[in-house]
Design brief:
Helix content is 69%, strand content 0%. It is mainly α and 155 residues long.
Length: 155
């Protein structure tokens, strides 16, 4: 009988390691608070694309997007303004995760470069970033958000 001695091996996952459980639960609460907006945004974008596709002239498309913006601000303005800075960042990341476009890109495609620039500058004043992306492979917080969504079976 021959004994083989192996070196001790430590298995750890850097992706799902969180130093403080409380931070994880706060992140989970924030994700759950902003995720319902994603469903609303999905429906709004689907309806807007359908309506804009049926319009012929650029002038009518601009008029439609201006009216749509006013309607969105009237519907979501107060609740989105009550989000904390961190919840706004999480919402921006979830929008990128869902649509593959940054919030800046969405604003640019519907309202133009000038409006996208203005909203981006305004978000920078409040420590936001409309150009933030979602990458769970390189960003620890994104990996945790992804884990929370998969845990809740939201794919």
């Amino acid at each position: 009988e021959k004994n083989i001695i192996l070196d001790e091996v430590f298995l750890e996952s850097s992706v799902f390691q969180i130093d403080n459980r409380m931070e994880f639960f706060i992140l989970k609460k924030r994700v759950l608070k902003v995720y319902p907006y994603i469903d609303s945004i999905r429906k709004i974008i689907h309806d807007a694309n359908f309506s804009i596709g049926s319009l012929d002239k650029k002038r009518f498309k601009k008029r439609y997007t201006r009216r749509l913006q006013k309607k969105i601000i009237k519907r979501f303005g107060k609740s989105i303004m009550n989000l904390t800075r961190k919840e706004g960042v999480i919402l921006s990341k979830l929008i990128y995760r869902e649509f593959g476009l940054t919030v800046y890109d969405l604003i640019e495609s519907y309202r133009g470069v000038f409006h996208a620039f203005l909203w981006h500058r305004l978000s920078k004043v409040y420590d936001g970033d409309l150009k933030s992306t979602f990458n769970p492979n390189t960003n620890q917080e994104d990996a945790h958000i992804n884990f929370i969504l998969h845990e809740l079976s939201i794919k």
